Amino acid sequence: MPADFAKHTLTATYNDLAETRALVAANKGEIACIILEAIAGNMGCVAPKPGFLEGLRQLCNEEGIILIIDEVMTGFRVAFGGAQERYGVRGDLVCLGKIIGGGLPVGAFGGKREIMEKLSPEGGVYQAGTLSGNPLAMSAGIATLKLLKEEGFYARIEEKSAYFEKGMRQAATAAGVPTSLQRVGGMFCTYFQAEEVFNFADVKAETPKIFAKFFRTMLEEGINLAPSQYEAGFMSIAHSTADLDQTFEAAAKAFKAL
Ligand SMILES: Cc1ncc(COP(=O)(O)O)c(C=O)c1O
Predict the structure, then answer these.
(1) Could you tell me the distance, in angstroms and rounded to a whole number, from the CA of residue 42 to the centre of ligand 1?
(2) Which residues are paired to 108 by β-bridges?
(3) Is the pLDDT of residue 10 over 90?
């Protein structure tokens, strides 16, 4: 990230409403928007503390700041309406990706009429791209959303994810490896430390190193996890009980090997 770009951005600690409030107060009238992942998936899987999202919403309302919720990971995953539905907090703008493309490359954003009207042809902001509205990606996305709307889809994902969480916890406990398994719906992360993670700084220096060893054994056992402690894992409706049981067997070995 070039320093010339970064200088326009302030960084606040996830889940720390007081710090965000202080940053806004110190830069009164200067903040255009606050953007965040409602559930932080790019540091593993960190849920918002009760009141954090509500507090950001209130702060944005008070200060005339646009709240942008990045639901690229969480959108259509933790609920049909994403993290916003799950936590009952609405952004002014939302960005989406991944699931809405049904496996094809896509990105989307939307939000309040008064903001979207700023885009051409109604407004003066021109937004376009070679693959914008690409018919193949749109068709795959629409087909996927139809499947997600089937009765009981999210209950089935929750059931599989809870089963996975229980199996992984049991494997870790049996091997005596301290872990903090954090999960929201079909998003999860096993941190290799006993302490719960509420923000990036809570991840201890040795934690990713332990993960790296675990990852390698899992791979040798035929289970291909995302290769970083800071990646969220995702449950798919296609994962069978047999797949999950196989994962627990591999995890039992990988935890023991630590
Ligand atoms: C939460 C989140 N936002 C944004 C992005 C970036 O999306 P893209 O790769 O489409 O630019 C990612 C990528 O994985 C992501 O996880």
Answers:
(1) 9
(2) 96
(3) yes
Which two three-digit tokens encode residue 55? Answer: 């507090």
The answer to whether the CB of 107 is under 6 A from ligand 1 is yes
Q: Is the pLDDT of residue 1 over 90?
A: no
Asked whether 50 and 86 are in contact (CB, 8 A), the reply is: no
Contact predicate 175/210, CB 8 Å: no
> In terms of Cα–Cα distance, which of 68, 67, 148 is closest to 100?
148
CATH label, 153-257, candidates 3.90.1300.10, 3.90.1150.10, 2.40.10.10, 3.30.420.40: 3.90.1150.10
The CATH class of the 3-148 domain is alpha beta
Look at residue 202 and tell me whether its pLDDT is greater than 90: yes
Can you tell me the distance from the alpha carbon of 89 to that of 4, in angstroms, rounded to the nearest whole number? 33
Q: What is the mean pLDDT of the chain?
A: 97
Q: Is the CB of 35 under 6 A from ligand 1?
A: no
- pLDDT tens, position by position, 101-110: 999 999 999 9
Which ranges in the chain are annotated with CATH 3.90.1150.10?
153-257
Classify strands 107-111 and 180-184 as parallel, antiparallel or unpaired: unpaired
Whether the model clears a pTM of 0.70, i.e. scores above it, the answer is yes
**CATH 3.40.640.10 domain extents, the chain:** 3-148
Is the minimum distance from the CB of 41 to ligand 1 under 6 angstroms?
yes
